[in-house]
Amino acid sequence: MENTCVVCFKPKPTLSCGSCESAVCKKCAQFLEEGSFSFMSEAPALSKHTTFCGPCYDSAVAPALEDYQAAWNKARGIVMFFMEDSKQTRFFSRKEKEVKIEDCPDKDEVLLRLGFHAVEKGFNAMVDVEVNYKKIRKGGTYTTTSWSGVGIPTQVTSKRLLD
Fold first, then answer.
1. Which of 19, 85, 96, 125 is 20 to 30 A from 163 in CA distance terms?
2. Strand partners, 15
3. What CA–CA distance (Å, rounded) separates 122 from 117?
């Protein structure tokens, strides 16, 4: 580590940038939260580090976070066709491999994760979606629920089905 902060040039910096390895004081450091890219199937290499200097954060981390947030917003709008809707979706393409999500705390997170994987692959809908839960007893009377889901990403072009 160097003897001065790379941003404010004050002596005795306590941290180092995860990207450029330069010394940064706590006041000038930008921090990335632990689960910032948690919905991505493969998190970017920058997510391994939590501390960045201002220039590295602005040039590398902030654009990645904006792209992640845009994909997250698209995932919230993905059209889900459940197994019960198979009559409507019988002519949809099912060429992609099915996406499996396991160990989620609630049903909404399972659906959001399925939608996020569809957005990552460039699709706008999920067909044959099945959501299941399993009760887990951890001794005594305390129980939790673990949710899982399966779906096939596909591209829907009919405006009637997207509304």
1. 96
2. 24
3. 9
Q: Where are the beta strands (DSSP E) in the chain?
A: 15-16, 23-24, 30-31, 51-52, 79-82, 99-104, 125-137, 143-154
For residue 113, report the phi and psi dihedrals to the nearest 5 degrees.
-65, -40
SS3 107: helix
- For 49-100, how does the pLDDT look when each residue is reduced to its tens digit (9 = 90+)? 889 998 899 998 899 999 999 999 999 999 999 999 888 888 888 899 999 9
Ramachandran region of residue 103, left (φ > 0), alpha (ψ -120 to 50) or beta?
A: left
Coil vs helix vs strand at 94: coil
Which amino acid makes up residue 53?
Answer: C
101/110 Cα distance (integer angstroms): 7
- Are 150 and 105 within 8 A, CB to CB? no
Q: Where is the domain boundary, 51, 75, 99? A: 75
Q: Are residues 68 and 46 located together in one domain of the fold?
A: yes
Task: Count how many residues are written for the chain.
Answer: 163
pLDDT above 90 for 138: no
pTM: 0.82
